[in-house]
Amino acid sequence: MKKKPNIILILTDDQGYWSLGCNGNHEIRTPNIDALAGSGVILDNFFCVSPVCSPARASLLTGRIPSQHGIQDWLRNGNGDRKGDVPIEYLEGIIGYTDLLAQNGYRCGISGKWHMGATGYPQKSYDHWFVTLGGSGTYQNADVYQGTQLCHTEGYLTDRITDDALSFIEECCDTGQPFYLNLSYTAPHSPHVDQHKEEYVSYYEKNCTFDDVPQDPRSTASIQHPHDIEYSLTFARPDREFLTLRQLLAGYYAAVQGVDDGVGRIVAKLQERGILDNTLIIYTSDNGFNCGQHGIWGKGNCTMPLNMFDTSVKVPCIFYYPSGFRQGVRSDCLLSAYDFMPTLLDFCGIPNPEAAMLPGRSFLDLLTEGKANSYHECITVFDEYGPVRMIRTKEWKYIHRYAYGPHELYDLVHDPLERFNLLTENRYFHYGPRDIEKKAAEMKQQLDAWFLHYVNPAIDGRAEPVSGRGQLCKVGPASCGQVTFSPVSEREYQR
Q: Which fold is adopted by the domain 387-463?
């Protein structure tokens, strides 16, 4: 009987599609990730479901849309990792694919970021639990939870996360049990300055032009004090009065290179233990990131109103399984993170009892045979971030902000960088006004029908005041009348 394959999901935090060598970045150094891509399948059009971490991660784990699982912004409260913050198990009673894997003989472990509530309480059938506090923090000498125990680490956090993952792999190899590992790095999330390996930072500061990261004029929608920059300044040396974009970019690149080091160590361990050929490795990120693109620094919550640019919602994605998947190929098929859970379970031959209520479909055939099934040949990507919803095809993107807008329509054939909102400017360059109005109405109708089919009305994000400043408790009736989302603040971090 063939041994069950092991599975490693390498999930980074705030990594733009553009920030890997294999995806066209000529200056960032990611040889280990590029090697995986060179022997695997690169998915060029893989989209997260929400341009901020907690809802995106919850959708990956459960296959549900945010308006089905109830996490609709990053979790400010309910993590239980600071004084006075009562832990909330936001995904209580909801099936995650780790539950199904554990029921079918897998040992499940997580090393790194969780950020889906009740951080100090192992959940979702994980019996190995090494998780960071909250959503981000220092990269130096960080505190973590090992099981229910709060512990202190020494040194660079990315390396400590890798160390723990290697220990988990060793344990599973020694017992012979098939394993699922969520290797969930906090990198390259802010803070970006005075946090990462100095030799890497120095290299990028001295040698890079950063030409692969266009610095567009500052967007009028950018919040006055971008919180990722403010957060980096909070953790920077006290003598720094301000941060330059060059310093921030060098730190971002250095953080990604630190992840690449970890990937190399993981692959070496799998080779050493003789299990590389029977291990599926997936590399992706929870959401994208802008480092100057569109004149913003951050992701979906770095603007007001919240944005759905491709740089915020498109993420790197690599599937590597040398004994069963195609090698050294790329696919431009549109795929959604909603499809991740069905694909993983299909790969393992595990049925999902809730499949009928979920929007995703398996794309396993694309990985094994190079052909998309009929569903994926005509897939449309849908995203939501509270009252902001998006529908995207290969040719068009429409964004609707309930209830009053502003709305956006982009012609991705003639404007792939999304510079011209056809509803407000340059609307007659390729099309007349009636053409634009017809296309917007057509996509809005399809958007409404899709969400109507999947939304749980009790926790519909369309009616929630999500500002991008964090979720405070469960939504809907479970909030018991409490304020659910933190309001917009002019300035959040102080030194």
A: Arylsulfatase, C-terminal domain (3.30.1120)
